[in-house]
Amino acid sequence: MSIEIAERSISPSALWQTGTGYHRELLTNPWYRGIACLQNSLSELTLDFWRTRNAQTLHLPVTTGSISSPMGRGSDSTPVAVHLGGVDTYLADSMQFMLELGCRITGTDCYYVMPSFRGESCDPTHLSQFFHSEAEIRGGLPDAMNVVEQYLGFLSAGMLDRHADLIRSLGGGLGHLERMAGSPRFHHLTFDEAAELVGPGGVVSEGEWRNLTRQGEYELLSVVGEFVWVSHWDHLAVPFYQAFDADDETRALNADLLFGPGEVVGAGERHTTIDTLRKALRLHEVSEESYEWYADMRVTDPLRTAGFGLGIERYLMWMLGHNDIRDFQLLPRDINLEILP
After folding, report:
1. Confidence grade of residue 199 (pLDDT, cut at 50, 70, 90)
2. Do residues 159 and 167 make contact, with C-beta atoms less than 8 angstroms apart?
3. What crossing angle do the helices spanning 141-169 and 30-52 adopt, rounded to 10°?
4. Whole-angstrom Cα distance, residue 32 to residue 80?
5. CB atoms within 10 A of CB 330
6. Cβ distance 34 to 166 under 8 Å?
7. Residue 42 CA to chain centroid, in angstroms?
8. Which strands sit side by side in the sheet containing 228-231, from one edge to the other?
9. Domains in the chain, ordered, with CATH?
10. What's residue 3's pLDDT?
């Protein structure tokens, strides 16, 4: 089903392309007041959801020496290196590793909402600085996928209850939110099944691994349904930390959830043993040096976990039926640009 677009009475000013005067647009255009309101509710609803599961949040730094999406084989992101206090480090694209540690420290599922940094330029569906709602749970990939579906239903029901009129005024219809809140069917395909369904422009091959293109994601949503999980990708197409499928180690225990603008949630199960983790590091040609602590954690405190990350701006983009993610930044940021404030 397509997303219903309501008659928009409030429109963005495309702050990201105005060059100057960001603060004036923020203070005078009600679009940004509305986005701030939706961001606040999403954070509050996230806290409420995890409270029902007795999960804990963690206060974590935005820097890391163990970047979670290194430039190994299959990596689709560039880490952001910084020199801080005499030390070469990275701005985090994710603190998933810390959430895995948190599950062991707290004995509970763990989550946070925090910024994520990538070294690529912005475009209509990508931000170089965005917000992640991430979580790690005790369990496997099917458990994580189930929690994602519950979380999205909870968020969507809460947004409808709080902000139906605001959503309409910002251009979003309510039908797709009502369907998400009403326990819809989440279709589930393996990557191999998905690759057979899409046309020649839907899959790109890198020789030893394949990826879906944005065109392929849209084709699947058109052919299969409104909410589509694609699981068991080629292991070399995903980060090293995703567990191997025990039945076929060329595949990973991971899944992306497609809806609206494409991939909105990424999920995966982690390696449970130090041996499989080290095998994955070698396969992906990633140095073990920065991850020795991460490997040792599997010896010191073995635990099966899986996790996911929801791109907050992509969720809001879907919610409002909007076609440019850059309009969901209150303070625009892009690489190679100095922007004030």
Report:
1. confident
2. yes
3. 150
4. 27
5. 12
6. yes
7. 15
8. 56-57, 110-117, 129-138, 305-311, 262-269, 254-259, 228-231, 187-190
9. 15-328 (3.30.930.10)
10. 59
| 89, 65 Cβ separation under 8 angstroms | yes
Q: H helices within 245-305, ranges in order?
A: 274-283, 292-300
- Sign of dihedral through CA atoms 318, 266, 143, 299? negative
* Paired strand residues for 5: 172
Q: Are 66 and 99 in contact (CB under 8 A)?
A: no
Q: What are the strands, taking DSSP E only, across 87-200? A: 87-91, 110-117, 129-138, 187-190
Q: How far apart are CA 41 and CA 316, in angstroms?
A: 11
Nearest partner of 270 among 96, 57, 133, judged by Cα: 96
Convert the pLDDT of each residue in 41-68 to its tens digit: 999 999 999 999 999 999 999 999 888 7
In the chain, what is the greatest distance between 2 CA atoms, to the nearest angstrom?
57
Show Cβ contacts of residue 205 under 8 Å, excluding neighbours closer than 6 positions.
none
Using the structure block, give the residue that is written with the tokens 């309409």: 168
pTM: 0.95
Residues with Cβ within 8 Å of residue 25, at least 6 apart in sequence: 13, 15, 18, 32
**Residue 260, phi-psi category: left (phi > 0), alpha (psi -120 to 50), beta (remainder):** left
Tell me which DSSP letter residue 305 carries: E
Residue 153 CB-density burial (10 A; 0-12 exposed, 13-18 middle, 19+ buried): middle
What six digits make up the tokens of 95?
């603190």
Query: C-alpha distances in angstroms, 137 versus 46, 192, 234, 254, 308?
Result: 15, 27, 23, 14, 9
Helix and strand tally (H, E) in the chain? 10, 15
Note the pLDDT tens digit of each residue in 260-315.
999 999 999 999 999 999 999 999 999 998 899 999 999 999 999 999 999 999 99
Tens of pLDDT, residue by residue over 64-111, are: 988 876 655 766 678 999 999 999 999 999 999 999 999 999 999 999
